[in-house]
Amino acid sequence: MLDFLGNLERTHMCGTLRAGHAGQQVVLMGWVNRRRDHGNLIFLDLRDRSGIAQIVLDKELTPEGHAKGEQVRPEYVVAAVGKVRLRDKDAINPKMETGEIEIKATELRVLNDTRLAPFSPSEEAIQNEEIRLKYRYIDLRRPEMQHNFRLRHEITLAIRESLSKQGFLEIETPILTKSTPEGARDFLVPSRVHPGEFYALPQSPQIFKQILMISGFDRYFQIARCFRDEDLRADRQLEFTQVDLEMSFPRREHVFGVVEQFMKAAFAAAGVDLPVPFPSISYDESMRQYGTDKPDLRLPGLTDVRSAFTNEALATLQIDSALPVVALRIPGVGELSRKEREENHPLFDQKKGAKFIDDFKRLAKSFPDAAAKVRELAGAAESDFVIVVAGDPAHHIKASDTKFSGRLSEREINVYAAAGNFRAELAKKYADRHGAFRITDEVVEKARARSANDDLIDGGKAFHPMWLTDFPMFEYELSSGKWVPAHHPFTAPYEADMANLVSDPASVRADCYDLAMNGLELGSGSIRIHSKDVQQVIFRALGISDEEARKRFGFFLDALEYGTPPHGGIALGLDRIVMLLAGAANLREVITFPKTAKAIDLMADAPTTIPEQQLKELHIRVAR
């Protein structure tokens, strides 16, 4: 028989009690984390979100409470009334924040029981993630998950306070809106009132926040819910949260300053001192130095070693002399065996028109001067393993195959990208080998678990932000045969490149910027187009006719004609920020009710079929 709560009121959270509370009468409520029966004494570890406190049920003092204590099991919900007392010295538990005290109970109420759960919240490692997601309400009781969401709250609060102090107003934008092309597929919502017509869930508040600038709000921000129907991975979910902001009359540096201030506040909320200002690098230089547009500065970069080779050596090695020749080094792993090298080969993306040399002994035998020069240029110690990546002259690809077009040629980008991808994959593999490489906190945590010496995993909690600028304005899409925006169609081009919009779109730079940290893209933003005429030129350059632009964006084009101020902004992924600071393996650890990699909510069993009558009301018929 369960007890009623009645007029009983909680006085303290379990984890807040300390030695200074000794002698106080308290009422605690929570879940039984553990039960130990010592005959006349029963000990209950009572847990709530703040922590655990030990309850003592003495049969002589409270026979009824003791009898109830004999019946309770882990995850029962109980209320305990009693007096705080200091533990005996030999009973103090230094591993518990409440380890100096215990509560001598005078009353115990059993508020609810529980079914046998598939796992216990006190289990340290639960391998089956599907079970965790199906029983998410139990999983969220785990201390690690409670920590993650307390941290998320503190980070979000710090961001809100920082932006408010900087003069930003928090304003909401619509969830039901118009479908506009923003890169990913929209989630569509059928209209019952307007048969055959649909709303779309926002991929971002992009157009609306620009309209807020036209409306004179000057500085806007929102902790915005966004939705994108795209393939999932560790750092993607169908629905996610952005720190979205926009400001009037800014230069790029103004946006940087705002972001750096709220990022510093967010990291401080997690106990991390994040130095500002953040360094910046151009897209081209990032590709040259790191082989990616989201560099992880914890890893050794790429080194240009073209000067180490004569043209004759390159010809013998079948390396394209017109393309980059770069070296990447793996610190501290020593010389890899042939078997180890062959195991690494599948990690190299050979589709990018690049090749690699990883048999350094053979290279040194055939070209000793070149091999020595490569190691010198790369700054390689004797214990470092070096790999050379270069262009493959036998690989010919069309200009349209490249992701970005601009000052770096397509084939140059492909060589750098192949080296950058290889660098990242090797980082994951060798993170735990003599502190060699590291790329994400998931890797760091796995490596730390395998190593008794944390010093081997140097800098696992080091955070290295980097601004990236000077992106190409357009990229060429092979499937459609059209130029498409590298970011989105509302990004302003550099003023100096305006004349080339139609004649040479590949050379046009965008006044946009990304923020990367530890190999993740945290956010992307730009200075926006604030002229209707320029916006229409961009649409035409993208192959969007005036008629189509009017159909899709007519309301926005109209708004641009009514005194639009210069404006710009950015959106940062809140989930990704929390994931980094929590040291989480993926976004599912910092989102309360996430979807699986197959886009399924295992707990709610969604998506699901809809009754025929409900579909009929929405004027929808499902084709079987």
From TrEMBL:
Residues 149-611 form the Aminoacyl-transfer RNA synthetases class-II family profile domain. Its EC number is 6.1.1.23. GO terms for molecular function: aspartate-tRNA ligase activity; aspartate-tRNA(Asn) ligase activity; ATP binding; nucleic acid binding. The keyword Hydrolase does not apply. The keyword Cytoplasm applies. Pfam families: tRNA-synt_2, tRNA_anti-codon. The record marks 38 as: Important for tRNA non-discrimination. L-aspartate binds at residues 182, 228, 487, 528. Keywords: Aminoacyl-tRNA synthetase, ATP-binding, Cytoplasm, Ligase, Nucleotide-binding, Protein biosynthesis. Gene3D superfamilies: Bira Bifunctional Protein, Domain 2, GAD-like domain, Nucleic acid-binding proteins. It comes from the Bacteria. It is found in: Cytoplasm. Residues 206-209 are annotated as: Aspartate. One of its GO terms (cellular component) is cytoplasm. ATP binds at residues 228-230, 237, 521, 573-576. It catalyses: tRNA(Asx) + L-aspartate + ATP = L-aspartyl-tRNA(Asx) + AMP + diphosphate. Aspartyl-tRNA synthetase with relaxed tRNA specificity since it is able to aspartylate not only its cognate tRNA(Asp) but also tRNA(Asn). Reaction proceeds in two steps: L-aspartate is first activated by ATP to form Asp-AMP and then transferred to the acceptor end of tRNA(Asp/Asn). Homodimer. This is Aspartate--tRNA(Asp/Asn) ligase. It comes from Candidatus Sulfuritelmatomonas gaucii. The lineage of its organism: Bacteria, Pseudomonadati, Acidobacteriota, Terriglobia, Terriglobales. The gene is aspS.
